[in-house]
Amino acid sequence: MSDSVIDLTSPAAARVAAIAQRQGKPPILRLAVDGGGCAGFQYKFGLADAVEADDVVAVRDGVSLVVDPVSLDLVRGSAVDYVENLGGAAFRVTNPNAASGCGCGTSFSI
Questions:
Q1: Higher pLDDT residue, 105 or 43?
Q2: The CATH number of the domain where 20 resides is what?
Q3: What is the Cα–Cα distance from 15 to 83, expressed in whole angstroms?
C-alpha cells in the first residue's frame, strides 16, 4: 500500500500498541466514517480483532490501521495521529478531503 492512501503516525502506533496490550487484543486500529456529527460525517475508532478481506491496511511499528473501502473514499490521503495537549489526548485525523470540520475534531464535511 502506498503512503498516500492512508497513514498512521508513530505516536498513534505507540498508543494503539499500549491500548491493545492492556486489553489483550491485536494491535489493529479500525478507522470508519459514519454519517452524523456536527459537520456531517464523523470518525469512529476502535480496536479490531482481525483485518477484513477488503480492508486497506497501513502498518507502522507493528501496528495496523485498517479502513473499509466505503470509509476510504472519505479519508484517502489522511494521516491518523495521537496528540496530547492541555485540552486532552485523542486520535486526530488530518484529512485533505475535508472542506470543514468541527471544533472537537471528530466530525467533518466534504
A1: 43
A2: 2.60.300.12
A3: 10
